[in-house]
Amino acid sequence: MNNQLNYIREHEQEFIERLNSWLRIPSISTASEHRQDVQQAAGYIRQILDQAGMRTERWETARHPAIFAEGGSADGPTVLIYGHYDVQPAGDAKLWHSPPFEPTLREGALYARGTADDKGQILAHVLAVEAWLKTVGKLPLRVKLLIEGEEEIGSPNLATVVREHRQQLACDVVVLSDTSKLSPEIPGITYGTKGLIYKELKVSGPKQNLHSGLFGGTIANPGQVLAQLLAALKDDRQRVAIPGFYEQVLEVSAQERQALAELPVHEQQLLRDLGSPQLDGEHGYSTLERQWCRPTVEINGLFGGYMGEGAMTIIPASVGAKVSMRIVPYQQPAQISQLFDDYLQSLCPPTVRLEIHTHSMTDAYLTPPDLPALAAARRAVEKGFGRAPAMIRSGGTIPIMALFRRELQAESLLIGFAHPHCNLHGPNEFFHISDFMAGIRTSAQLLEELAAR
Questions:
Q1: How far apart are CA 144 and CA 77, in angstroms?
Q2: Is there a domain that residue 259 lies in?
Q3: Are residues 207 and 82 in the same domain?
Q4: Where residue 163 sits, what CATH number does that domain have?
Q5: Structural domain of residue 179, as residue ranges?
Q6: 342 and 378 housed in the same domain
Q7: Is 211's pLDDT higher than 80?
Q8: Alpha-carbon distances, residue 119 vs 25, 105, 352, 418 (angstroms)
Q9: What does the pLDDT look like over 285-304, one tens digit per residue?
Q10: Strand, coil or helix: what is 340?
């Protein structure tokens, strides 16, 4: 690996400049006014893959294109590396310390939208492939890359892309880096993620807003009913109160509970990072167990009624809420979704109307612990970062692993290079240059380790 590692070290500044150029393209997939920017970002990463020596294709979808690349011998194992080039909106520009689409280096960290999620992380894999091709002249195994432009809007066309190109995407294992390290100092391999069910509730009563003095006490207030329904989602021990919710939950084993307890995660530091006065959650479980291994229900937003300046005394005609559930293996999204609907409908009084809309449903995922590629990944991360990785789960959701398992019969490795509090989706998103370079080294080592396995 000396030639590849020397190439990576010698081209560090050039790699950073390439990342900067990509970050300057505001490839916001959810905004129609940025459609051309999304197209430009797709073209940019395809150009880098072309120049590295990979064979590339552009796959059109109903919205934004996906870039496919492949190289290496067809004999032997095949790895598929997945990533995305689209980014979240910047949000309130006043909260950024530097312009969100003008990469700025401060104290060893590069600040811009998309640095960690996911341009910086997927580019690390692309540059590792380049390091092999520019030094050795060939790859140690068959390498394929799929880089899409719709992840931040739920990948609505990815399933179609995978089905239509199933043969081209065939592989032995999938690698993605859309997660993080355990801590600033300790790298991590994520072996489990939660699934997601996202709901929108609307409670309506009168045909229009009414005077709360003239009509108070004569009809049900939709705001009051909604508050009661939401409060009924959990009991006083912070357990989800939906009947049947926990029936298929994969319980935390004694071995995993011990492993989680030994991770160097400090709750007081977590509180300082989050800014909350106290931790809270389901009784009987540690913070990491609740965060990574236990299902949850959370209220994401409330709307309706009068929210303007000063006072307006009304009974609102309708109010609403957005609610998400994070589920764990072996909970079935469709079943849990129906349990949620049935429970709230059973509690809703006949004095109002309740509408429930389901926005999305996604399975949870666990990497099989005996997967040979997992041992290869652990060795590669230790070589790339100079420290053995922690084995961790995530409370977040990445829908594509279940898709790859179902359509390609391939399991996934999640190797995160970014800081765990890198402000992804928030203001001042960042990616440390040291982690970017360690990610490139890790990916280069991973190709060799996977070939050996």
A1: 11
A2: no
A3: no
A4: 3.40.630.10
A5: 2-193+364-452
A6: no
A7: yes
A8: 11, 16, 47, 11
A9: 999 999 999 999 999 999 99
A10: helix
